């Protein structure tokens, strides 16, 4: 066994500026594309909601044009100031809020969608929102559409479902599962080719109280306003075509493509398919493709590909990469949510070799059941790498962070386990890449997330694609899924 602590990776921002924290990087240097002609300077935001939610959200967004001081605490790095979202701030962009971009829905019409069966309610409200979206896009076509439902409706459509991205290394149970309103709406709205952002009423209306699940008489703790402003505005910036930050790359580094592979069942749960989220190049642009059929192994109960389908999947993904960049990557890294079979390894390798890609690494990732304990009050540091065997490693992607002088989490962090198959890079290098990829979720400005964006994205995509038919068109941009 071997235990090492990896260096915290930086992110790159405007003019080559680097920082380990997304928010401090934007504060000091501006978003990555701040000086690019393609930067979105004016972002037209359409809002679908009741007159009350549209008004309250618009008022809050107007207030966010100005700076918001960070939460008062002795741990200052945890809550940096929000600089304001306007043309004269570090973002150098602003939101266009106009009545012509809004689609108000009557509160009575929303209540009429509510039925005794929760799934019927979810379908009815989705139908109502899609009708409004179709009219909005036909008349105005904003850059982003925000859905702002009142709290009483949110409580009717949401369901308890913990985020267990890396835990989904086994296919879902065959019994029917409740509809996921978020995923159903994203799938139904995909044909209109406008990114959708759902906003909880607690984000913009502090008077709204949301009960804790399992503790109906206790209100959930609300994030501070600065954090809410950071998260929503970075998400809107990305969904409108901006790039807040990227992974740094030295001139001597190979051009690398990261490929995340996860699995999902169709809506009727009749067959198992693959889903791929392709996060290529250091900008982290996500291009999505849908793979072919998969099967559930009787030996490990996990989802797998045949060798031929694994080879086909790699070639399809690289065709998309080449169409975007005009060339193939020099290195390909595949992250998979289940263990590799011998047939899968042979299929992936055959496709990679046939394409002439010189360097590649195949990793399988899942939740780790082995943990480390550290003296004192804090858990192990983020970046702690524990090598158990030559091909088996434990990595803490969440943990204590010296920059914050604390552990920025609520629960005991659980590390991830990754296994490598005939690796070309060292375990420390592969683990450092995983750490970097936990910072590439632009739906939040959280310092780092538990899972790398490769599998988090693949999992998000699979959750949405299960509501679409085999021949339904899908969006290739990751912005349509987050």
Summarize the structure.
With 482 residues, this protein is of the alpha/beta class. It is globular. It has helices at 22-29, 51-63, 107-112, 118-139, 151-157, 181-189, 201-204, 225-239, 307-325, 342-355, 427-437, 453-465; strands at 2-5, 11-12, 18-19, 42-49, 94-96, 102-104, 144-148, 196-198, 211-212, 215-219, 256-265, 272-280, 285-296, 303-304, 331-336, 359-367, 384-387, 392-395, 416-421.
What does this structure look like?
29% of the residues lie in helices and 21% in strands. By secondary structure, the protein is an alpha/beta fold. Helix 6 (181-189) packs across helix 12 and helix 9 (307-325) packs parallel to helix 10 (342-355). It is globular and about 60 Å long. It starts with a strand and ends in a 17-residue tail after the last helix.
Which terms would index this structure?
single chain, 482 residues, alpha/beta, Nucleotidyltransferase, domain 5, ten-stranded mixed β-sheet, five-stranded parallel β-sheet, 12 helices, globular
CATH topology of the largest domain: Nucleotidyltransferase, domain 5
Number of strand segments? 19
CATH H-level homologous superfamily name of the largest domain: Ribonuclease H-like superfamily/Ribonuclease H
Radius of gyration: 22 Å
Strand order of the largest sheet: 1-17-18-19-16-15-11-12-13-14
Global geometry: globular
Ranges where pLDDT stays below 50 over 5 or more residues in a row are 160-165, 169-173, 214-219
Q: What fraction, in percent, of the residue positions are helical?
A: 25-40%
């Amino acid at each position: 066994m071997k235990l090492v602590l990896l260096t915290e990776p930086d992110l790159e921002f405007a003019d080559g500026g680097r920082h380990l924290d997304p928010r401090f990087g934007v504060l000091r240097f501006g978003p990555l594309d701040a000086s690019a002609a393609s930067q979105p300077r004016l972002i037209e935001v359409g809002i679908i909601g009741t007159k009350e939610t549209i008004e309250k959200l618009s008022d809050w967004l107007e207030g966010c044009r100005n700076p918001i001081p960070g939460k008062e605490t002795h741990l200052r790095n945890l809550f940096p100031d929000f600089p304001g979202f306007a043309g004269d701030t570090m973002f150098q962009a602003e939101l266009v809020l106009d009545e012509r971009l809004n689609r108000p829905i009557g509160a009575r019409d929303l209540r009429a969608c509510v039925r005794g069966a929760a799934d019927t309610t979810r379908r009815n409200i989705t139908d109502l929102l899609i009708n409004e979206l179709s009219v909005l896009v036909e008349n105005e076509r904003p850059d982003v559409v925000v859905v702002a439902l009142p709290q009483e409706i949110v409580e009717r459509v949401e369901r308890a479902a913990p985020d267990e991205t890396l835990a989904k290394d086994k296919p879902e149970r065959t019994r029917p599962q409740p509809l996921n309103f978020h995923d159903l709406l994203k799938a139904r709205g995909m044909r209109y080719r406008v990114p959708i952002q759902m906003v909880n009423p607690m984000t913009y209306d502090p008077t709204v109280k949301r009960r804790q699940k399992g503790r109906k008489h206790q209100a959930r703790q609300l994030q501070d306003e600065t954090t809410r402003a950071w998260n929503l505005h970075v998400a809107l910036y990305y969904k409108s075509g901006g790039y807040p930050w990227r992974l740094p790359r030295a001139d001597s580094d190979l051009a690398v493509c990261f490929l995340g592979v996860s699995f999902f069942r169709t809506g009727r749960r009749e067959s198992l398919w693959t889903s791929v989220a392709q996060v290529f190049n250091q900008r982290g642009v996500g291009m999505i493709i849908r793979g072919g059929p998969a099967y559930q192994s009787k030996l490990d109960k996990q989802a797998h590909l045949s060798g031929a389908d694994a080879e086909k999947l790699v070639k399809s993904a690289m065709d998309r990469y080449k169409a975007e960049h005009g060339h193939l990557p020099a290195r390909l890294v595949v992250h998979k949510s289940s263990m590799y079979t011998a047939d899968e390894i042979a299929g992936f390798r055959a496709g990679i070799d046939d394409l002439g890609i010189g360097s590649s690494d195949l990793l399988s990732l899942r939740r780790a059941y082995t943990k480390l304990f550290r003296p004192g009050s804090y858990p192990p540091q983020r970046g702690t790498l524990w090598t158990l065997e030559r091909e088996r490693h434990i990595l803490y992607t969440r943990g204590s962070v010296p920059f914050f002088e604390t552990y920025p989490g609520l629960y005991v962090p659980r590390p991830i386990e990754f296994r490598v198959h005939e690796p070309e890079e060292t375990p420390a290098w592969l683990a450092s890449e995983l750490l970097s990829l936990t910072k590439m979720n632009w739906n939040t400005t959280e310092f780092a997330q538990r899972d790398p964006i490769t599998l988090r994205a693949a999992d998000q995509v699979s959750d949405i694609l299960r509501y679409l038919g085999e021949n339904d068109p899908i969006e290739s941009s990751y912005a349509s899924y987050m």
